[in-house]
Amino acid sequence: MFDKILIANRGEIALRVLRACKELGIATVAVHSTADANAMHVRLADESVCIGPPPAKDSYLNVPALLAACEITGADAVHPGYGFLSENARFAEILADHNLHFIGPKAEHIRLMGDKIEAKKTAKRLGIPVVPGSDGGIGPGDDAMAIAKKIGFPVLVKAAAGGGGRGMKVAQTEADLQLALSTASNEAKAAFGDGSVYLEKYLTKPRHIEIQILGDGRGGAIHLGERDCSLQRRHQKVWEEGPSPILNAAARAKIGETCAKAMREMQYLGVGTIEFLYEDGEFYFIEMNTRIQVEHPVTEMITGIDLVIEQIRVAAGGDLPCAQEDIVINGHAIECRVNAENPVSFRPSPGKILQYHPPGGLGVRIDSAVYQGYVIPPYYDSLVGKLIVHGKTRGECLMRLRRALDEMVVDGVETTLPLFRGLVREPSIIDGDYHIHWLEHYLAAGDAKTSS
Ligand code: ADP
User: Could you tell me the CATH number of the domain that includes residue 174?
Assistant: First the structure.
């Protein structure tokens, strides 16, 4: 096992990793920008190192500074959290060159899955169902129109290097295709330095369902059921729950086993998420994330397995926590991502938290790094915290979530709490009857209750 882990991240995920390290008896090193000197992860870590000024490129993405911090503190492994360097294959290689362990998958797998075209090809080869589309990138010599017609309109233009919903454009009809191709490509070039795009069938009312997997890197892998992340705004997840309200045990076991089998064949190491769109009883692979995800607590609440602890264990050469047949899905969990944003315009609202009261009670979990008097800096994401609620049934979970949301107080900054208070009372949400465009329609119709 590792002796000392450097956590190359900030906010709630840095704290989440720190908690896992403490339970495992591993010493911790926090790193921080000058904007985060008073952050909770810095206060709770055994040691901390300032790695640069506020902009992420000069601090949390500053590889030489991170290496120096490892050197100074004698850390033997690095946990990247999510975002920042978590899916950077080169970073994993650089750490290995310096005799440091990267807590994550093998660099070759990060690279493979980081390229969405290659990822799709790999998924197909491993027997995972994919969205119909162009088999590779659209090059200058390709007849994009012919390919699009073959797929059938509407089609979605997606960036090979995409992420966070950027570089994605819908062409409803033939007339829209050229513009969609050029805007997606330009957006991708600006955001990722790579303008290559590909085409996919645009599914009109799918759900987003993802499978959590864990591999030991030696051909052992298990799946831990699914999360339904269909409630999205601008392709960003807002509310995640598990199990999916529309999947039965047989369907879950079938797609889960398909994913676990693929991971065994790849000899995948660590945690990962295989994301699908689900429509009319069919799963369609869209991408794989080779890191711990924001919504991982949903799975933890329904399986009782600490994913970060297991991620650290397998990275250190340990075994999987149990066999597939020992994974039992217990009850229901829902996560709300509470952001410091205006609940109507979604404009970020950084600033000082004047009052903070997290809800409590049975089945209520808060993953957050804020506190009363904390100043949310304007430089990073606007997550205040994640409220995760567990219940024996989905009904009990919703009942408890309603209560917890009403109890939670975050004053001084605007938050998306009013949005969730409305959602949890919406008939479609209560019935589990929603798809990936549902939230946008709800917001556009002005149905969002933002009074409290
Ligand atoms: P990113 O890496 O940018 O997050 P994804 O491929 O994971 O991109 O897709 C993000 C979201 O975009 C999905 O959850 C879904 O809402 C939407 N999406 C992606 N592919 C399709 C598709 N073929 N049809 C309809 N919606 C899609």
Answer: 3.30.1490.20
Pick the residue whose CA is nearest to atom 9 on ligand 1.
Answer: 165
Question: pLDDT tens digit string along 428-446?
Answer: 999 999 999 999 999 999 8
Q: To test the ligand 1 pocket, which listed residue (168, 198, 291, 438) has its Cβ within 8 A of the most ligand atoms?
A: 168
Q: Is any ligand 1 atom within 6 A of the Cβ of residue 210?
A: no
112 in any annotated domain: no
- Buried b / exposed e over 61-93, threshold 16 CB at 10 Å, is bbeebbbebbeebebbbbbbbbbbbbbbbebbb
User: Could you tell me the residue range of the domain that residue 272 belongs to?
Assistant: 207-445
3-state secondary structure of 189: helix
117 CB near ligand 1 (under 6 Å): no
* CATH number of 246's domain: 3.30.470.20
Give how many domains the chain has, as a whole number: 3
Report pLDDT for 142: 84
Q: Is the dihedral of CA 196, 201, 204, 205 positive or negative?
A: negative
Distance from the alpha carbon of residue 330 to the mean position of ligand 1, in angstroms: 29
Residues of the chain under the 70 pLDDT cut: 447-452
Is residue 98 a part of any domain in this protein?
Answer: no
- Residue 287 alpha carbon to ligand 1 centre in Å: 8
Task: Determine contact, residues 49/26, Cβ cutoff 8 Å.
Answer: no
Same domain as 298, residue 323: yes
CA-proximal residue: ligand 1, atom 22 (nearest): 202
**pLDDT value at residue 182:** 94
In a domain, 109, yes or no: no
Residue 81: per-residue pLDDT:
98
Which residues are known to be catalytic? 291
Given this model, what pLDDT does residue 163 score?
79
Asked if residue 202 has its Cβ within 6 Å of ligand 1, the reply is yes
Provide long-range contacts, Cβ within 8 A and 24+ apart, for 48-54.
49/73, 54/377, 54/379
Is the Cβ atom of 440 under 6 angstroms away from ligand 1?
A: no
Cα 159 to averaged position of ligand 1 atoms, centre (Å) = 11
d(CA 178, CA 183): 9
Distance 235 CA to ligand 1 centre (A): 6
Task: Give the model's pLDDT for residue 452.
Answer: 43
